[in-house]
Amino acid sequence: MRIPINEVTPATGSAEICGWVHEVRDLGGLAFMLVRDRTGIIQVTIPKKKVSEAVLAAVKAVSRESVVRVTGPVKAMEKAPGGRELVPETIAIVSLAETPLPLDVSEKVPAELDTRLDARFLDVRRPRVAAVFEIRSAVMHSIHQYFHHEGYTAITTPKIVAAATEGGTELFPIAYFDKEAFLNQSPQLYKQMMMAAGCEKVYEIGPIFRAEEHNTTKHLNEATSIDIEVSFADHLGVMRTLEDVIVKAYAYVYRSCPDQLANLEIADFAVPKAPFPRLPYAEAIEIAKKGIEEPIKYGDDISSAAERAIGAEMGGHYFIVDWPSEIRPYYAMQNENDPSICKAFDLMHPRMELSSGAQREHRYDRLVQQIKKKGLNPESFDFYLRPFRYGMPPHAGWGLGGERLVMTMLGLSNVREAVLFPRDLHRLVP
After folding, report:
1. For position 169, what pLDDT does the model report?
2. N or C: which terminus of the chain has fewer CB atoms within 10 Å of its end residue's CB?
3. Those residues with Cβ within 8 angstroms of residue 402's Cβ, 6 or more apart along the chain or in another chain
4. Is the pLDDT at 164 greater than 80, yes or no?
5. Between 3.40.605.10, 2.40.50.140, 2.60.40.10, 3.90.1150.10, what CATH number should domain 5-95 receive?
6. How many CB atoms are located within 10 Å of the residue 97 CB?
């Protein structure tokens, strides 16, 4: 029976392992084959005068990244990976890999990101790359676990919709029989409708689609959004929830992924401390003015350069609050004492924005007014507005970018490294 490589020790006695040939070295009378599975690497030592002809033939025929099955006794060997080696009694080539390889899995020869993405099935075999997705899995597990523990209902909202969430033009149109339809850019409208349904606390982790013609290191056209909506809550309450989610995700990775962090050579992984600072938008603009050359004024959106300048000043996770109402979506509730600002927030990492949220406007008449003020037609949002006429509780929520969370957590240089098969302006395959 096959044993995962990380469980193979001298105490195992004889073992059967299966995996990919990471490397083969022939030193004349002695050959070494490193075999890798998702749990680790083991050295297979082949003393040519002591093994069978079938073993020698397999070693001669095998190529790097071929799949093999190896059986034999395990011995202690201080210089070998993991302090042990396997001396083969049998080597079976299960699947022979073609040569040359599209990229070097052993990472001795670096490859550009596009080359890696073109051969993603090989790229993810690299322990360093696999570590990213094992950590991403841990992050998502932590978040699911948190919401389950806190009594949230998991929901799934439609990804084919009839109207834009925010009335923007950055939508992918699709053919939906004889109707106009789009890929959804956010579950925003539907999770708000669930507040009228009496669910009170909902979350969703799922894909969103943005037809933005960006070609940057932080934008994707298909991304993973982590969304919540909570009844009888204000923006301050869901900001605390967001802090909790971030801190617990970091802490879970710290506890459960030491090997993966080591593969990524992250020795100083730090769990952020809550509460995160609250920075008013007006103050953020003033900080940006001092740190960037491009002009920026009150009422402007915050550019990437401005984000970096503000982030350098803040030094860690922080919130930007008290946004001008005119530049936030129609569903953000205005401040009662100063309608020019609203109860919206962005969660920021020093490198970029991670999340946007707000207390929502739950009063039907005011919501219609705000839709009109944004130059939109309320009739286009009839399916969304209808629940507000039949008892909508006050509510608040946010959306958090899954890939950006992983990217900033691990210090990745490009958001595409945090998604298995990225979709961007130029990439539709694989």
Report:
1. 59
2. N
3. 136, 139, 140, 205, 223, 224, 225, 226, 418
4. no
5. 2.40.50.140
6. 17
